[in-house]
Every structure is written in C-alpha cells, then in structure tokens.
Specification:
Structural class: alpha+beta
Distance between the termini: 51 Å
CATH class of the largest domain: Alpha Beta
Number of helices: 9
CATH topology of the largest domain: D-Maltodextrin-Binding Protein, domain 2
Number of domains: 2
Radius of gyration: 24 Å
Largest sheet: 7 strands, mixed
CATH architecture of the largest domain: 3-Layer(aba) Sandwich
C-alpha cells in the first residue's frame, strides 16, 4: 500500500467524506476514491459503510484506523527525527489570516519566517469570514478567539486588549469623550459579520469595575476589519479595535487611544489547527515566532504608555 493512500484513508475517516478529504489533500475526488479502493482491496475488507449521503466507519475500520494513525505518526516522527539531525524545516503552510492583522502584520512575520526557513512555502487565505478548514483547504488559522469546536487544536499566542481609537483631528472637531455616556454623540465605525453590525460597545471602569453598554450611532460599517481601521485613520469616526491591528497607527501617532479610565474587552489571539497531524514542526516554529512578534509589539505599546504592563502578566 502507498503511504499517500493511507494518509487519504485517515483524512476520509476524519472528515467522513471522500470529497472533503480530497479537497484537504488538494486532489481530485476520483483520485481519492481510487486510493480508498486500493487500500480496501489490499486489506480485503471495507473500512467504511457508505450511504447516499454519509460515510461511517465499519467494524473493520474502527479497528484499523487507530492502528493506521499510530503507524503513520511513528513514520512521521522517524522522518522528523532525521530532519532534526540535519536541521531541516520544510513543508507548505496553508494559513488563514484576518484581513487587518494578516495584511498589516502577519504577512511580514511570515516573510521573515520564510527567509529563515527557505524550504517552507506559503498559501495565504485572507478573510474575516468564518474559516471552514475543509472547504477552504487550510491547515492553520491565526484568529482572535479560542477554538469554538472541541475537535480543533490550538495554541494561544497572546492576550490582546481592544482600544477605543480616533485621530486627533477628529477629536479636535468633535470633542474628546471622557465617559462612555458621551459616546452617543459621536460617529462609530463598525465591524459587520454575517449581517450583524457590532454597534453595541461595552466598557468597564478600570478602578470600580462598573460596566457601561453603549448603543452607538454611525454611518459606516464593513465586514473587512482593515477597512474599519482605514476609516479610523482617515478621521471618519471612533473605532474599537485590537491594539495589534492598530499598533502601527498608535505608535506613529496617526491615531490616539481615548478614555484611558475605561477599558474595552480583551481578546485572545490563537493559532488554530483542524487536527494533530496539522501541527507540523514548521507550524510549531511559526507559533513560537508569532508569540515573539506579538510580545514585541505589546511591549512597544507598554513603553509608549498606551497599554498597562499587566497585559504581559
């Protein structure tokens, strides 16, 4: 049996779909079906029970798949041990990135990573939409928020405060709000996802913990986080954004963080994988690199007095 055929079988078992497995492995469905048939023919049993809509493991498949997975992991480890001895890091990184963080930070991080490891190749999917690992053919997603599906694997990169930002020109014209209740007279710039406009902003007092929920007014909304940032930098209104997304603008003075006595929510940046097999040595090195880059930017924001040192605690 071919190693690639066995890898295909494991993907079919994982996704319960020949089509999804083929998409993930970047092959035609007919090719995947032929590979599955070759393995079943060699074993003399059917590994899957097929219906018109679904695949499920047969009793033989339930016995075979775990052993097959274990065997391939041992082979992968042996291969990696050889590479470690030669200091080889290679493979293709198929990664999904959000529009703002991806375009303005992560792509440059990836460029530097690939200069360090020239045998690594990259396929980047930049979108703010929900990622379907199987439909979108990606193995890694850099996303705000921890994995929502228990079947997913992930590494936390860092905690990221969100900040209320505006240009000084906008504030000179419209005034600088000092309390959440003053925000209703300002123009909000909103992120929109799945037709839901995020125009309800929540703040808590840094000392008392008192919480304020504000229904904002605004004349601009987009499903592209980078566009929301650009509107803010252009002085079109106020925006609540990740401090990483706004870091270059904050450090350069193009925008300022306002209402320092009140904080918006913090979010977490995660590197997410659909399976353990996706966590390759290159992916682990990428995780470490992303952590290092993120901490460096957060430290710069702390040095400028924009963030509190507790962010890195």
């Amino acid at each position: 049996m071919l190693l690639k055929d066995l890898q295909l079988v494991l993907k079919v078992a994982e996704f319960r779909s020949i089509t999804a497995a083929a998409t993930q492995l970047d092959m035609r469905t007919a090719t995947a079906s032929a590979a599955l048939k070759r393995v079943e023919s060699a074993l003399g049993v059917e590994l899957f029970t097929r219906t018109t809509r679904h695949l499920r493991l047969s009793s033989a498949g339930e016995k075979y798949i775990p052993l097959c997975e274990q065997a391939l992991l041992i082979l992968d480890q042996a291969k990696q041990n050889m590479k470690d001895g030669l200091d080889i890091v290679d493979g293709e990184l198929r990664i999904a990135l959000s529009s703002d963080l991806g375009r303005n930070l992560a792509i440059s991080w990836l460029d530097e990573f690939m200069e360090t490891y020239p045998e690594v190749s990259l396929k980047a999917n930049i979108t703010d939409s929900h990622i379907d690992f199987y439909r979108d053919s990606v193995d890694i997603a850099l996303r705000y928020g921890s994995p929502s599906d228990a079947k997913l694997y992930g590494f936390k990169i860092c905690t990221v405060p969100t900040l209320l930002c505006a240009t000084q020109d906008y504030l000179d014209i419209h005034g600088t709000p000092e309390h959440p209740h003053e925000l209703v007279s300002h123009n909000g710039l909103f992120y929109q996802l799945h037709d839901i406009i995020h125009d309800n902003w929540t703040f808590s007092h840094c000392s008392t913990g008192a919480e304020y929920k504000i229904k904002m007014n605004g004349n601009r909304a987009s499903n592209d986080g980078d566009l929301v940032r650009r509107w803010c930098v252009a002085g079109k209104g106020l925006a609540v954004k990740s401090c990483l997304d706004m870091s270059a603008d904050l450090l350069s003075g193009r925008v300022v963080s306002i209402m320092p006595e009140f904080k918006s929510r913090s979010i977490e940046l995660w590197l997410i994988f659909p399976s353990r097999q996706s966590i390759t040595p290159a992916a682990r090195l990428l995780r470490d690199s992303f952590k290092e880059k993120s901490v460096a930017i957060l430290s710069q924001l702390i040095d400028k007095g924009i963030l509190n040192e507790s962010v890195l605690a």
